[in-house]
Amino acid sequence: MECCRRATPGTLLLFLAFLLLSSRTARSEEDRDGLWDAWGPWSECSRTCGGGASYSLRRCLSSKSCEGRNIRYRTCSNVDCPPEAGDFRAQQCSAHNDVKHHGQFYEWLPVSNDPDNPCSLKCQAKGTALVVELAPKVLDGTRCYTESLDMCISGLCQIVGCDHQLGSTVKEDNCGVCNGDGSTCRLVRGQYKSQLSATKCKTHRDGPLDLLIYPPLA
After folding, report:
1. Residue 165's beta-bridge partner residues?
2. What is the structure's pLDDT at 109?
3. Degrees (nearest 5) of the Cα angle 125, 127, 131?
4. 45 vs 141: CA distance, rounded Å
5. Complete DSSP assignment for 105-140
6. pLDDT digits over 84-114, tens only?
7. Which of 123, 121, 115, 118 is nearest to 156 (CA)?
8. Which run of H or E residues covers position 94?
9. Domain boundary assignment for the chain
10. Are 119 and 144 in contact (CB under 8 A)?
């Protein structure tokens, strides 16, 4: 009995096809990246404070199309604005104060926390019930909601964690520490008694009291 058999042409062809397919699969990711030019420099931040957005572009080198995105974003200017800077969405509304709406000037105030489209610029005419969408998109870096770090980028609300990273779901713990475990403070419950004075009258009021106690710094 023969211990080995000579490979037939059909077997060799199947083996070569298998090697070719494996090579293409292993290089697929590299090939996709190879169709793109290198990422360009980051743009200027959309804001100077309060958290903004910056973008970088890349060019498709293929004569057909490339798989993936040609733009990427990151947060920037993640420092608090001075109090006199005002609300970013309010600034965008007030920019329309000198533009007539149906032949009349209005002082526009921001309409925040729209559950349906938080990234459109909706403003209300001061002293009226008139609410108008003055722009389909707010400027990049505008907060989607007043009590959230999530920001609008290119008209879409993007998740932002307390680490100021796009797509991050990291949140502050009860002690206000980003991604903390709540071990840096403790909750103390008790009762409080306040005195409210008006002219010569005093009113005593009792109620629950919650205090966050932080350990002293070493």
Report:
1. none
2. 98
3. 30
4. 9
5. ---EEE----SS-TTSEEEEETTS--EEEEESSPPT
6. 999 999 999 999 999 999 999 999 999 999 9
7. 118
8. helix 88-94
9. 41-158, 164-190
10. yes
